[in-house]
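Here is a tokenized protein:
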Amino acid sequence: MFPAFYQTTLRAHLSESQYLTLQLLLLLLQVHRQVKLSILASVFPQPIQYRSRKRNLQRFLALPQLSIKLLWFPLIKDWIRQEQTGGGFNRAQRRQLKKLKHQTDGYWVVAIDRTQWKGRNVFMVSLVWGTHALPLDWEVLEQVGNSDLKTQKQLLKAVLPVFRNYRVLVLGDREFHSPKLAQWLQERGVSFALRQKKDFHFQSSSEDDYQVLKDLGFKPGMSKFYQGILCNKGDGIGPFNLAVYWKRQYRRKGPKEPWYILTNLSNLEQALAVYRCRWGIEQLFKDCKTGGYHLEDTQVNEPRFLALVLFIALAYTLATWQGQWVRESGIDTYAGRIQEHQDKTLRQSDFSLGLYGQRWQYGMSVWADWVLRLIALKPHKRLYFQRGFRALSLFQQAL
């Protein structure tokens, strides 16, 4: 089930029993799209009583080996390292990497954001991947509401070494508007595009007084790029650049306010292009919740919750890569809905395609006897069934 570099890392830190348990749990996540412990225990394939299965999973989720730094970071580092040579990647993944690098001017784009999961305030760092994002690091915050600058730096400090020797660009919405965060990133050679609030103060040149964005009279359809500005009246943090863009309204509909993006990128077009990639982390949150694994339904304690997020990261990444391979191989029609000629966007994401494909494989294997009996009753469909079995064999080779 796992790629070779996954197996190497996981087997190095887990016993054979723990490794097999992890494989079974990931299979159940893909099939049932549910991380609620009671549901996982009810379907976990072990011939013991339900209460024993649940206690077994509770003990497994509390293992100290199930940590981000021990299991997840080595996998991400290995995966990033393979990207440099193309080793270990199939054709679809290499094409996706090339496309991403072209869109983002060669940067690895990292998005930061925060979300609420049933009372848990989760701060997450993710890697933008196409229209979605892959989780990199996460932390449950003690306070309710926005994260502070100290927490933001702490989580980014853990992630940035993963991209050593690579160009990195950090994206953040208005929660991460602090010019001090921008200065901290710039000192480390990291590019950034951080959206600002409308009360942002800046000085465009040494002769000008500080201006406030909301007083500059921008209207829909307008854009402007300020270079070499200073921020935080009294501190003079900078110099940075400031991109302003208000999308034109169509039929009196459009965004209610413009984008104000503080950046160290060199032009307006580049700043807008990379900031649009930030939507990928919102798609990631949706896939972790109602659009995918229903993380908000779980009621476990914090250590087990963090272990479940780790399982989701493993399963989500594998499903995304498998979906890319399936689409590139031309067998996506067997996994789910495909793009019609009049569609401007794909009907299903790579993650959704990989997830549905794995569920189809599971059904074909579990009910194989009934499937073969049903096929025998339809001899006139023999050619189509042969094509389907070929597609199934390709699915099994996806990773």
About this structure: The chain has a mean pLDDT of 85. The radius of gyration is 24 Å. The first helix runs from residue 4 to 13. The first strand starts at residue 108 and ends at 117.
